[in-house]
Amino acid sequence: MSTTERYNIKSTEEKWQKIWAEKKCFEVTEDKDKEKFYVLAMLPYPSGRIHVGHVRNYSLSDVVARYRKACGYNVLNPMGWDALGLPAENAAMQNNTLPKDWTYENIAQMKEQLLSMGLAIDWSREVATCDPDYYKHEQKMFIDFYKKGLAYRKESVVNWDPVEDTVLANEQVVDGKGWRSGAPVERRKLHQWFFKITEYADELLEGIKTLDRWPDKVRIMQENWIGKSKGVQLSFDIKDTEETVDVYTTRHDTIFGVSFIVLAADHPLSEKLASDKDGYDDFIQSCQSTGTSEEAIEKAEKIGFDTGYKAINPLNPDVEVPVLIANYVLMGYGTGAVMGVPAHDQRDFEFATKYNLDIPPVILPEGESEEFFANQKEAYSGDGTLINSYFIDGMNVEDAKKAVEEKMIEMNIGEVKTIFRLRDWGVSRQRYWGCPVPFVYRESDGACIPVPEDQLPVELPEDIDYDAPGNPLDRHPTWKYTTCPETGEPAIRETDTCDTFFESSWYFLRYLDPNNKTRGFSDEASQYWMAVDQYIGGVEHAVLHLLYSRFFMRALRDCGYAVPDEPFAGLFTQGMVTHQTFADKDGNWLFPNQVMQKDGKWQTIEGGDDVTAGAVTKMSKSKKNVVDPQDIIDTYGADAARLFILSDSPPDRDLEWTDAGIEGAWRFANKLYRITEEAKDNLCAVGSKQPIEFSEKAKDLRSHTHKAIKGVAEDIEAFHMNKAVARIRELSNALSSFEAKDAGDQWALREGYEALIKLFNPMMPHLAEELWQSLGHDTLLTDESWPSYDEALLAAESVTIGVQVNGKVRATILHAADASKEEIETMAVNDPAIQKAIDGKNIKKVIVVPGRIVNLVVA
RNA sequence: GGGCCUGUGGCGGAAUGGUAGACGCUGCGGACUUAAAAUCCGUUGUCCUUAGGACGUGGGGGUUCAAGUCCCCCCAGGCCCACCA
After folding, report:
1. Which nt is closest to the CA of A250, judged by C1'?
2. Given a cut of 70, is residue A299 above it in pLDDT?
3. Residue A851 CA to nucleotide B69 C1', Å?
4. Pairing mode, if any, of strands A414-420 and A425-426?
5. Across-strand partners of A324?
6. Tens-place pLDDT, residues A382-416
7. Distance A162 CA to B84 C1' (A)
8. Quick one: which of A120, A528, A674, A700 is 20 to 30 A from A830 by CA?
9. Are strands A853-858 and A798-805 parallel, antiparallel or unpaired?
10. Are A660 and A615 in contact (CB under 8 A)?
11. Are the C-beta atoms of A459 and A133 separated by less than 8 Å?
12. Which nucleotide is nearest to A809 (CA to C1')?
């Protein structure tokens, strides 16, 4: 084929993008007569260039958007920019620019790239979170939360990232290191703003049950993160003092197995009881120095320090047990003190063994005698019968718990308590490029006063310098000096900015009403569009972003906003995009476009040096195993890039990017163009009226077509895009090998091609639009509806099934679709191959499932 | 340590309990071409010399006329959480 006949990607894709934009094809308004469908892709951070992960994400959301639009929904598919955050500041420091300028330049670049993908996005609703008109509204929400008691300020020990000079949320500390910088986190005491997410712990947990269109793994991760546990809190008196210590346990059945009490190193009582003891300071220091790296946690030796005091078992005052301080008890969970039951808790067991503490058993596993504990090597944490436990002897674990609870309440020494692992969300960040926390502190009395609504937004100053470490807002010469809105006295602005998860917790609401100057969104828009019907993004946000957003809806609701409890009715988490890694002989990473394969061996393109092809891993800049989607789009076109990324792997699994894969997709795009052009004489000869008679093969083709229509829709709805693509390929194979002989054939062929084009439109919209036009239509395919299928045409007139003898397939037979069981059985038994397989033996049983299988049981 | 997920050809992956390997990539053979590219046709799970068989979905048991699919026990890999009392 000459090049002039080949599908011209670039001009065609640009042409249709322009037409879609001019005709505002994807701009939507609240249309009460139409059912809405809100498709949302996680908004990108404007790093400067899109990466393949973005392409995957937005290809998926685009398929959903275009499919739902074709199905008649009023589809909202917006896009915006998660534009606040640290990288802009780092870039500003390095390049001596302003974070704002850097960010907006990146947005412009990335928008151009996204436009070249041909996405069905309503760009009129574009939002950038760094726009004061955006963060103005969240400052209002912050104040609403404050007035409702959902935002508060307290001095607390924080996770301090020494590299980024900022506070990190617990969720942002991974293995004791900052999630982004990787630096070991330090502990500092600061005044911090918090959101009371714990207020909603139970509701957030319960809400998970309603999220039936979320992946199970995300729901489980959220459940674990919230970490509800039921237990009791009870008090131990400390002998010879006025002090008592509260412990929390879920195993109160083992109360008579307590042989010591352990306090966290930073428990207030630890200092009170032991600070005057020799070695205390050293001990505390060694507690704080361990437990940062992953390895340290793995191997962390349990270390303890004896306070010398004794605690009295509240249910058995005759028993006194030592009170120790140990590094394995966490101040942040429960009460920061635990009762040591070494016989039945592995951590306590290790600790007791090391420090020679008693290990009294109180639960006997079923079928064992007390001999079981004679040479105990590890704690027994299973069920069994209570022993050595006074009034609960002989009970099982569950009954014993109940009995202890009752007794405890009766004696007024404890209470049944449910606790959560979840902590309040610390939102303060000591950074410049974030949403300013809208409060001032009056100098005269330090009163914390919200900035009045008519003075919002509190805007970031633009004349900042990065010459010193720390927060540029804090050392700005004028910005923070203001007056108290109530008294007019001198006041200091809060110089903390918000965690950037704040912006992403509600951006999907801003899309609904982006031009609303007075509120972040109107109740009417929210009531029409919310909740998001299909949210799509990476699984790395399974806990943080998704949990914060869920919290936000409830907090907003309680502040009088009209929002649903659950923001995202449907969630899909896509897999990562991976690529093979390459390294030269010195172990330096090489980009894929620096290497080539020759005679089965990898070598550098320049120089032909040996290259080691390594593992296939997530694309990352540090390993250089990245491809630039823009190069791909420029070379092969957006349609081919989109098709490849949708076709090779199930979307929830990892996808390996390969050159062969993208070339295959590109070939298929060209093939679709070519076969349509080649069939055009037949396609354009068709009249508007459906012929009465069809040849057998035309009927067969129509069956193919209608099956494909049904199947592709089902696959798209189930996010099986790879299967949808396979069906489209099958249909195209059937069409391209079809020879039209009469008018009926031509009609069936045209029906097939039109369906084909509509079916691949969600994946390859430019090509689809081009071919639609080339078939003589003067409408936009984008405005066309999804083809419908005829149930009667789905079933072929005859069907080939396997015939088994004793479960092994020995032959296949072709039977009419409406054949009776008896007819099928006769056919099967009389088949020569079956006769041979039966070999004269008796047929004991015959199973006939028409359209499926025949199985003859012989002996 | 806990939780979740995944194991199917050379590769990515298909299979409401019913002909395992759809669809594609790669490879091989052929057509077209002076040649190449592109394209098209055929072929491609393994083994047995073929007709035709045997084997085959990580391993071992079980249920069933029939198991990749359901049940039990192992093994391997991945992800998440993790001294959470």
Report:
1. B85
2. no
3. 19
4. unpaired
5. A262, A306
6. 888 999 999 999 998 889 999 999 999 999 999 99
7. 27
8. A700
9. parallel
10. no
11. no
12. B19
> What is chain A's mean pLDDT, rounded?
89
Q: Is beta strand A439-442 parallel, antiparallel or unpaired with respect to A490-493? A: antiparallel
Q: How far is the CA of A858 from the C1' of B67 (A)?
A: 20
- Range from A272-276, A286-290, A472-476, A636-640 carrying the lowest mean pLDDT: A286-290
Beta bridge partners of A537: A573
Residue A725 corresponds to which tokens in the numbers above? Answer: 């693509």
Distance from residue A149's CA to nucleotide B30's C1', rounded to whole Å = 79
| The pLDDT of residue A584 is above 70 | yes
pLDDT beyond 50 at A277? yes
CA of A718 to C1' of B68 (A): 21
Q: Long-range CB contacts (< 8 A, 24+ apart) of A812-815?
A: A813/A854, A815/A850
Report the predicted TM-score, pTM, of the whole model to 2 decimal places: 0.91
Q: Letter for the amino acid at A88?
A: A
Residue nearest to nucleotide B39 (CA to C1'): A1
Nearest C-alpha neighbor of A256 from the set A344, A171, A325, A328: A344
Chain B, protein-covered positions (CB within 7 A): 2-5, 12-16, 18-20, 22-26, 38-41, 53-54, 65-67, 79-85
Mean pLDDT of the A460-474 span: 84
Q: Which nucleotide is nearest to A249 (CA to C1')?
A: B85
Q: How far: A1 CA to B38 C1' (Å)? A: 7
CA–CA distance, A683 with A704 (Å, rounded to integer)? 17
Find the helix or strand (DSSP H, E) in which A485 lies: none
- A710: amino acid identity, one letter: K
Nearest nucleotide to the CA of A332, by C1', is B84
Share of chain A above pLDDT 70, in %: 96
Q: At what angle do helices A765-774 and A743-760 cross, to 10 degrees?
A: 150
User: Which residue in the block uniquely carries the two structure tokens 């010591």?
Assistant: A260
**Residue where the block lists tokens 């703003």:** A193
What's the Rg (C-alpha) of chain A? 34
Q: Complex ipTM, two decimals?
A: 0.93
User: Residue A858 is encoded by which pair of tokens?
Assistant: 């012989």
